[in-house]
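Sat 14:20. Reprocessing the chain from the morning session after the first attempt stalled halfway. Input below, unchanged.
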Amino acid sequence: MLLAFIAGALIARVAFWLISNRMFEDGLTTITHARNVPLGLGLVHHVGEGNVHGFTSALGVLIPLVGELIHEGSGILAMRIASLIAVCIALSYARAICRELGLSAFPTAFVLAYLAFDQNMIFYGMAGMETQVAVAVVLAGVYHVRRNDVVASGIWLGLAPLARPEFFLWVAPALAYLALRNAKAGIRAATIAGAIVLPWIAFTILYYGSPIPNTIAAKSTVNPTPPILAGGSPLPWIEWLAGQLAGHIALLLYHLEPFREVWSTAAAPLPGPVLIVIAVVVADLFVIGLWASRGIPGFWPVTVFLALFFAYRVYFLPVLFYYDWYLPPFLALVMIVAAIGLQRVMAVAPRAGTVSKPIAAALALAFAMHMPFSFVVEAKVQTVEDQVRTQAAEYLRSAVKPGQSVVSESAGYIGYYGDVKLYDYPGLTSPTSVRALQTLPPDQRGVADLIDVLKPDWLVLRPWELDSLRQKYPATASQYVVDRTFELAGVPESRLNADGANTVSFAGLAETDVDEKFIILRRAAPGP
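Finished this time. Tokens:
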């Protein structure tokens, strides 16, 4: 069964690669850093602002860096190959975890099917993100920590924060568990983990001045956490926290719905009530699994990590249906807990157990059935990217003079193909943008506000972003003239100019595409 799912996972990912050649915007942002090393620019996104830590995942940049050092332009190829290897590792460890937990064939098959065929599991790894590697790192760590394998635990726990910084939330309970079982073993595992992660921390301090990525500073600037006391009262903070909690619970349920787990989904081939039923069934199984896992030896570090990760999302991330790539490692463990719940139902209620097998098969199919639809849709999205953002970036590469600055939200394509000094919004790769936004009130930190402060030489804006600039800051907008427009052919201007009006679709699956028109403006009036 394991070999069958590994083969299916590889076939699915290679098919997605060949059909769509999808390159995700945020993946290109990180890969641009790696691309610039052999070009002699350093591990930076663009020149003109010094050494800027404009990526979040260390492995997300080191893997494509290996590809770029071998052959220029091979960064995304390296990440795709790493994702193919990582899914084999993830499936192998998931199978081993299920065996250790005593799960039978159907619950195990459900877990493996989800990991092999889920939409976000396939998309992000094969579109240039470190997501699939992060899933493998977490699952490997869970397996070895539960078995008290000191050396292997130390290695995988050391790789965890390099995969995603928030995985410190996994490392802490894991090391605590090892130390409680055997203090010397826990110290040894922590030493091994430290030996892996500390060199990277030292490098970032020496090279960037801080181990904290600029991306974190940028995101916290545009989405600040409110103070506990405002005007001497905690009530505003309590209301905010309640809204965050309710919003993130709703978002999590959305991510348990096939097709709807992708932030831009506008329509799905399955009716909405069917998707809701699927999410409710998985959520119910997860709750049952949580209750049942209390009696499983060595499982509490997983439960603690799930709780800490959800609390981190509630407190630090806005309630936006975005940031999908954060969730696959978390959801991989959620599905293992749901499988525990399915196993418990099969054990305690024989009649329900008979129904549980087709339920497991149906859930596996539900999370896999997106492939004929999403692969074609993502191919169409990539066609839009090639015609609009790629061409806009290549035009900037030739039009922008050395030293001139550009403001745009699109740090991925413009950075990778444009090679310009980019004050991106919200400043993922630009401390200049972050500092400018920090001077403004929290409710006035949009793209238009950034432009009004910086008044760069060039702007690359979507139509509604340009409308916002003209409405809020007409004097600043008057300093710019339209230089060139790049848009998808054959679409009415009224739809291209409206935020969220356009979708890319196939056979009932539709995704909103907000990147079908970009307007390039240059400053005609003298700037500061």
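Residues 376-523 form one domain.
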